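A favour, since you know our structure tokens better than I do. Just paste the record in under my message, thanks.
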Amino acid sequence: MTIRRRRECNACGKRFTTYEVVEKLPLMVIKHDGRREVFKRDKILNGIIRSCDKRDISMERILNLVNEIERDIRNTMDREISSQDIGRLVMEHLKDFDDVAYIRFASVYRKFADISSFLEELQNMQQRKQRAQQESYKDTEKADKPDK
């Protein structure tokens, strides 16, 4: 991002233009094997696009999700983040975004060894949904009761 400013010399009164650039320190990703590389938003975008393949999800929604994830990563104020932390953050966002995309991403991220670990994750998802529905039902009941 560049900021253009018109200025005036205090000595001679001549006007001139300056351009200021916001200095960004690169965000580094610590890979599983210890290597470090510069954070690339496109890697998250591509992973989510693959997870959402053949789903009725607009590119705009996907881009908004990636923006949220990147904002959360950058808001940590750390200059380094592990790829595992990024994966966990993506999964947290996908939980509420789309169930199928979440499972697809989780199957790659968690490297499900067998069908039982896959089924366990599905059961966890189902339990979370049931709890959320129960909470929603309780909130609706409270809202429907008149105050005495």
